[in-house]
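Please predict the structure of the following assembly.
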Amino acid sequence: MFRQVDIQFEDFAIDEVLGTLKANTSAAGGFCFFAGVVRDMNDDEEIKSLYLEHYPEMTEKQLHRILDQAEARFGLLGAIVIHRIGSLAARDNIVLVAVAAAHRGEAFSACEMIMDYLKTQATFWKKEVTPEGDRWVAARGSDLSKEAAWGDSSA
Amino acid sequence: MFRQVDIQFEDFAIDEVLGTLKANTSAAGGFCFFAGVVRDMNDDEEIKSLYLEHYPEMTEKQLHRILDQAEARFGLLGAIVIHRIGSLAARDNIVLVAVAAAHRGEAFSACEMIMDYLKTQATFWKKEVTPEGDRWVAARGSDLSKEAAWGDSSA
Amino acid sequence: MKVLFFASLRETMACSELAWTSDQPDNVASLMTQILLPDGQSLASYAETESLLIAVNQQMVDGDTALNPGDEVAFFPPVTGG
Amino acid sequence: MKVLFFASLRETMACSELAWTSDQPDNVASLMTQILLPDGQSLASYAETESLLIAVNQQMVDGDTALNPGDEVAFFPPVTGG
């Protein structure tokens, strides 16, 4: 399986990612993408910007472990994960998960599984800047349920 | 819900579509995209190019009916469907379904449902150009099963 | 009425569009017995062996659907877009 | 051993990284009783009320995990990326 993991300050371009996947996978018929963006509201507070911290030595390893699991479970031909760090403004792109598979059902499932695992296993933390001051974003229980629903949450 | 349906000869740009969805939906946190491309092999035959025919007066209506159903079922904030027609080369983009939702689970489900319905209800037909000559692509039984799995296949 | 054919059926019929000026049939099934393919068999008989979808006024229907003057009736094979 | 803190715990500890030069603890739980927060409570007692994740050598583990000299031990709140 072709794979690429990037942790970067810069924005990403989805069309470029599709081009990379096409160039590195043959026989792929379905490409699924998930893009996450900075919300402009959270818990009824206006979000002015966001600061993304991570654990550099670990994050990339975790993302590769997540891709290992998706690859073992689905007939994936390629996967690219890009996660931004540093300061981001409201509505900026944060994360892109892109997956190529022979069939669309597997592309959708693999992309969603990678996102669900990323939410609970990848070592990123968000701090929101609001008019009331800064605050660390709290983890959501619903994300743990989503991860658990895949049945195997080893990492 | 913001919506846009385009049937066009030209290629699409996913980053532009994400920009349109962002500009027309607030509070969207998750964006899911599915891109379909022309396979370079089908049933062990090399595909040189593809011709896409459609039923102009009906196709757009069908796509809007599909979006109506996705909107009724999921908490969608926006959806864009772009389908190309005419002559396409192997590996060219064919279709893009883009969905914005407050939460990622709904974005994935709605995008997959729209694609599954599009495959069985939107009035497009593919003709493949192979070294052995032209042939109309046969519909797949697995696509009917996928549509039926959503439980309601009225259109 | 206007009758349309698409894709492989258009090629089999050697016709995209047909202005229906004969007697007005009651329903789609009746129209299908009156439409003849180049080989002489009716569209109704063709549909016994080939999958065929039907739309009246751009809405998918089945053979029982009633027809009225001015209707646009379309016949086509299962769709293969996406 | 090297001990790392991230995000809100980094701020609470007022420390990103700590070179552990005291006695080598047998396991993570034992290390947690020896790490003190600025308010004087131990990390073990802090973890009784706050969710805390633990990684040893960049792998998620639990408190029973044995520790060896040279290990990199990290403590952090539940992750919130994506």
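Chain A is about 35% helix and 35% strand. The interface with chain B takes residues 13-15, 18, 22, 26-37, 39-41, 91, 93, 104-105, 107-108, 111-112, 115, 146 of chain A (CB under 8 Å).
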